[in-house]
Each structure stands twice: as C-alpha cells, then as structure tokens.
C-alpha cells in the first residue's frame, strides 16, 4: 500500500479527481487475518468494492500492483461495477508460484497492462503469451529499462515511475474521455 508503484499510480488516478482506496490485504502490514494465497484476498478486494460503491456511488476503476494486480483482476473481472482495470507488474512466476490468467479470456472491461522489460517476475515473452489470450479491449505497455518496481536497471539507471504514470493518464483519457 505504501510502496512507490502504488503511490505513483494513486497520484495519476487522483489527477482526474477519481477517489482512490488503498488497502493492504489480510495479514499484510497492520491488517488483521492471515494471507490466504488468493481467495481471501479476492474477498478483501470485493469488500473494498462494496465500500467504494456505498461511499461514492460512482463507476469504479481497479488498479493493482504485482500480486495485487492478479488478485484485483481476478476479483473484478465481469463485475458490472468495475468499468476498467489496471495491472502494474503483473506477475507470471514469483516465489515459486506460477500465476495463471485463464479468467481474462472472458473479461469484458477495458484493461491496461504495464510492466518493465526487466521485470524479474514476468519475462516479456511470458507476458506476451498471457496478453495474447486476454479479451479486448486491452492495452499493453512494456517500459524499457524498468524492473518489477519500475526502478532503473544498471544500463538504464533512472526510475521509470513517471513513464508508468504517463501511461495510466493517457489510457484513462483515451478510454474514458476524462
């Protein structure tokens, strides 16, 4: 919730006046409960959607980073309250776990995927394989010289967070006429 990727994504979304809810999944930080390896975290996401709907009565966009992008897309795919989804650093393999995305073959909402070309949890070839099966509408963007946290690499040492934010802003403007 407090890492640079989530913070910079929040700033990009807030620049359009869209309310943002950031939260930790169960068992992370000071949150209660225990990590549930996906199903429980999808429940956490749906609880957040319920709160956003009650509080703002507005269409909802969902953005997630890393494990949060997998959980958010899985929880929100097909939910009529969710108008669009953003996946930042979508993992394919991390911590000995393989992530699958079959649920995205039937996911009607607009989707934005942003990853770095040096993401240690998602080689570009693996991402392209996942993305090839994702239902339209979708936009994919690989940021050169970025690793999983959109920081620089030895051959491209400057952070890439501003590029990530620019992609989010462009997609929001073009997809939702904001």
Provide a concise account of the structure shown:
By secondary structure, the chain is of the alpha/beta class. It has helices spanning 4-14, 39-56, 67-76, 124-132, 161-176, and strands spanning 60-65, 82-88, 93-94, 97-98, 111-116, 138-143.
Can you tell me about this structure?
- By secondary structure, this protein is an alpha/beta fold.
- The protein has one domain (4-176): Rossmann fold (3-Layer(aba) Sandwich).
- 36% of the residues lie in helices and 16% in strands.
- It contains five helices and six strands; from the N terminus they run H-H-E-H-E-E-E-E-H-E-H.
- The chain has helices at residues 4-14, 39-56, 67-76, 124-132, 161-176, and strands at residues 60-65, 82-88, 93-94, 97-98, 111-116, 138-143.
- Helix 4 (124-132) links the parallel strand 5 (111-116) and strand 6 (138-143).
- The longest helix has 18 residues, at 39-56.
